[in-house]
Amino acid sequence: MNKRQNLLKGIIKENPVLVLVLGTCPTLAVTTNVMSALGMGAAATIVLLCSNMVISALRNIIPDKVRIPCYIVLIAGFVTMVQMLVKAFAPALDEALGIYLPLIVVNCIILGRAEMFANKNNVIDSAIDAVGMGAGFTLALLLMATIREVLGNGTWMGIEIPILSDNNISIMTMAPGGFLVFGILIAIINKISGGKNAKKSFGCAGCPSAEACNKASCGEKEEAK
Amino acid sequence: MTKFIIIMLSAVFINNYVLSRFLGICPFLGVSKKLNQATGMSLAVIFVMLIATAVTWPIQTYLLDPNNLGYLQTIVFILVIASLVQLVEIILKKYIPSLHKSLGVYLPLITTNCAVLGVTILNIDEGYTFAESMVNSLGSGLGFFLAMVMFSGVRSKLDNADIPKAFQGLPITLVAASITSLSFLGFSGVVENLFA
What we know:
heterodimer; A: mainly alpha; two-stranded antiparallel sheet; B: 0% strand
């Protein structure tokens, strides 16, 4: 796989949110407006880039048996750094993201890329993979947030849209709207890709850390056997 | 006492972890297919939430805050939760095998469950006392349980429905979750008015 393909796969073919269905919690929670979606995307991308590079550099040093705890500590360290930077330079963003900023630690995308890519590839490739995946995550969040903010609030990044701002569907910015928009987006992706992903199971089976935890615990996999 | 009831009710119904705060979506979508799995997973979550709060609250209050180490919260909490889950699994396996048999398989999944890390951080952010934190954790766990059990009921109906091809699998599950979450919107404002 050349470098260009490696970069682009995260954006379209293996989009972490819309195709791999990872990191659903922040996807649903922060996409109520475009600004916080972009902030979340940027924060997660920085953490992903740093953790992918460091984990890739340390891949021959970290013992295989304790790799997951090691990854979690590394990721938590980078998240703490990002948290402190955001608190210092963008307090408004800190307010908007709230609890979801520290929760980047348990975002499956980051642990997933560490487990699936960074511990098998060199530093440069891992960095490219992180940028691609981060961009894919950010674009997916941006798409969701655009739909939800335009329909729900009648604005886009705070700019009012003439007719829609008087006729907003406020349910779109609330919890049910998040599930609905996400469900419909995935259905559209399924339709476009010809139903190739339609049967793909989700939850634990799609979760990259499923390998790490006891496989028998995954409901979907149990049925597959 | 009223404050405890308010915290409890808002954690279960109004700020339901899954349906309005979007925490713990992965197990909500992944393990909710069968009622017994949903129950097992939620019981394990309640259990871990309670012990995680019982451990992390004193750490934050008596160890991190007095030493100006509050910024280490994220890293300390995730480590504590991860090791706690391992420890609980070992203890259950050794001393209460019957409980381990029913909850054990779900325990490793919980380490990376954002609901558990979320509840411990939120307890600190909200400035709850120890007792209030425990009540909030119990409420959040019960809210998770309620959402899981309700949703597994909804999903068992979906199995027999004739769904357009593009919507099969995850999309229809999300749409169903949307409607379930819509029903929880009806609770907003109830608690404030109940004790006003």
